[in-house]
Amino acid sequence: MTANEQNISKLRELFSKVFVPSKDPNGFAIAREFFSSLEKSGDSIDKMKKISYSFEKEKKDNNPLFFATTFLFAFEGHYMSGINSIIFLLVCYGHDIFDPIRNRYAHNMKEIERIDVEIKFKFLEEHGFDYVIKRDCQTIRNKIAHNDFRLINNSSKIRIAEKEYDIAEMLGSLLDFSGILMHESAKLVEKLPRIENT
Question: What does each C-alpha distance from 181 to 13, 64, 70 come to in angstroms?
Answer without folding.
Answer: 13, 26, 19
